């Protein structure tokens, strides 16, 4: 019996709009341009780039849209008669003080915003999902962050694994996504990127494409 090759991997991505102190969010541009970039670059046959969504940089403002696109992707998967393989959500956010990429291993059930989000909300030590209990509750990705990091570094990217996604909107969205992923048998990962002034747009686009291709090839 011959090999059927790697199974299909559908990757959905999100980024964020501008927010306090970041007038131009690189993740908005990355997510907006990703489909055309991947078409020009070419990608593995088993990699399907699904939805590319830009979220408000606001806790509840982002989560409403997030749940809509998450649920839409699940409904689409269930409506298809043929098996669709793995579904992965990759969320991109900017860390304006960073000098390299970071793959986030976990999110914490705590919202402590250092400044108001784009809807004016500034929670302090509030549980993101009260029914999950304490603000110390953590959820981890089921993707192999260490292995992904090592491979991306071998390719030539300056990237590190991270256990701290902050307590702002990035962590807020990631926690909700990890919770949803666990409930629906999919996978989720958050990636922090620097400003384009630190690592230019072309390099960041190639990094994102390499990450997606790696996820497809390792499935």
TrEMBL record:
Keyword Membrane: no
GO CC entries: cytosol
Coiled-coil parts of chain: none
UniProt cross-references to Gene3D superfamilies, sorted A to Z: Peptidase C15, pyroglutamyl peptidase I-like
Entry protein name: Pyroglutamyl-peptidase I
GO biological process, one term: proteolysis
InterPro entries: Peptidase_C15, Peptidase_C15-like, Peptidase_C15-like_sf
SUPFAM superfamilies tied to this protein: Pyrrolidone carboxyl peptidase (pyroglutamate aminopeptidase) (SSF53182)
Domain of life, per lineage: Eukaryota
Pfam families in alphabetical order: Peptidase_C15
Assigned keywords, A-Z: Cytoplasm, Hydrolase, Protease, Thiol protease
GO function terms (MF aspect): pyroglutamyl-peptidase activity
Naturally occurring in which organism (per UniProt): Digitaria exilis
Family designation: Belongs to the peptidase C15 family.
């Amino acid at each position: 019996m011959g090999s059927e090759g790697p199974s299909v991997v559908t990757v959905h991505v999100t980024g964020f709009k501008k927010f306090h102190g970041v007038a131009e969010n690189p993740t908005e541009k990355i997510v907006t341009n990703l489909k055309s970039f991947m078409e020009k670059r070419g990608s593995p046959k088993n990699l399907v780039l699904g939805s590319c969504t830009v979220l408000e940089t606001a806790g509840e403002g982002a989560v409403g849209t997030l749940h809509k696109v998450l649920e839409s992707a699940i409904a689409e998967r269930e409506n298809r008669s043929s098996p669709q393989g793995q579904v992965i959500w990759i969320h991109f956010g900017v860390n304006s003080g960073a000098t390299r990429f970071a793959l986030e291993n976990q999110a914490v059930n705590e919202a402590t915003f250092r400044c108001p989000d784009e809807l004016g909300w500034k929670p302090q030590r509030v549980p993101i999902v009260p029914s999950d209990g304490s603000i110390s509750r953590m959820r981890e990705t089921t993707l192999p962050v260490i292995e992904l990091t090592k491979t991306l570094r071998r390719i030539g990217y300056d990237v590190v694994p991270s256990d701290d996604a902050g307590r702002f909107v990035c962590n807020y969205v990631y926690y909700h996504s990890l919770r949803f992923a666990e409930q629906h048998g999919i996978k989720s990962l958050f990636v922090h990127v620097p400003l384009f002034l630190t690592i230019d747009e072309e390099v960041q686009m190639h990094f994102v494409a390499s990450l997606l291709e790696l996820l497809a090839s390792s499935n």
